[in-house]
Amino acid sequence: MSSETMHRRHVLSAVAAVVVVVLAVAGYLIGSRIESLQYREKRAELPENFSLTPTIEVNGQIWAQRPNITPILLIGYDKTDGSTRTGYRSGGQSDFLLLLVIDHEANTVRQLQIDRDTMAAVSVLGVTGHPAGTRTMQICLSHAFGKTIEQNDASTLEAVTNLLEGVPVEYTISMNITSIGRMNRLLGGVTVTIQDDFSAVDPAMVPGRTLKLTDEQAETFVRSRMQIADGTNEARMTRQKTYMLAAMDLMMDRLREDSGYANTLLNGITEFTNTNMTRGRMLNEIKSASGYEIRPVEYIEGEHVERGGFMQFDANEESIIRWVLDAFYHPLKS
Question: Are residues 63 and 193 in the same domain?
């Protein structure tokens, strides 16, 4: 092959390579242009009432999620201080569950107390920590699953979310009920009127008497069950509600009197609570809620049934839906 022929082939190869590159670049630019036009066309076709606000449909009615609410699940779990975690099922039971919904538009705080015996779907972990499916059980048992307190709280949060039809709750604050005395001390003593006879445990705690509880009395009032009244969890829940309402009223009064008390409160509870909220977020929510209307505690309707020697609460689904819609959503005009 002559040198002239080889030179001609090299030139043709170079030209072909340039053509391929030019075509590739042109193809990319044309494709990008088409994609850009298609993207703009799709945006232009969005309906006028398009919104990023989550919506749901119930019985033909469209409901939009309230735009400025902060749901916080308060968890009071019962686990003996100092007890060793031996696996993924030793997080204690969540005897007290209170869902707060802080509405910054309506300036209100809604409170939903959830019966510890409520039957709910709970994600179960095996003894080695691997997921073992979902079981229907008392919602208080959900807190047992997990190796850490964060996992325990997340398990209970998931169970509450399942119970409340997937309601968007993000934040949790949990406390071991054994620390109720420390909470009582931080508040300077919570005052309640005794309804049940505690005299077998404390002679001063008799029916009809109004007491500013000592730290020991506060724990007795909130935790005692078997030897008090009818010995049921339902009766204990009533006492827990009585204490928590009185504690919240006292807390709000002190916050209104002294705005600096929010920092004192936050510093104090940090020592015996666990939360997935940042300090700044907690501080802002506490300060805001101190000026809001605190609504009375609400409950889900249902029925207590004894099965296999254990008390269970079957929640009414319609009652759940009504509460969730009222607290988390508002109806859109059709």
Answer: yes
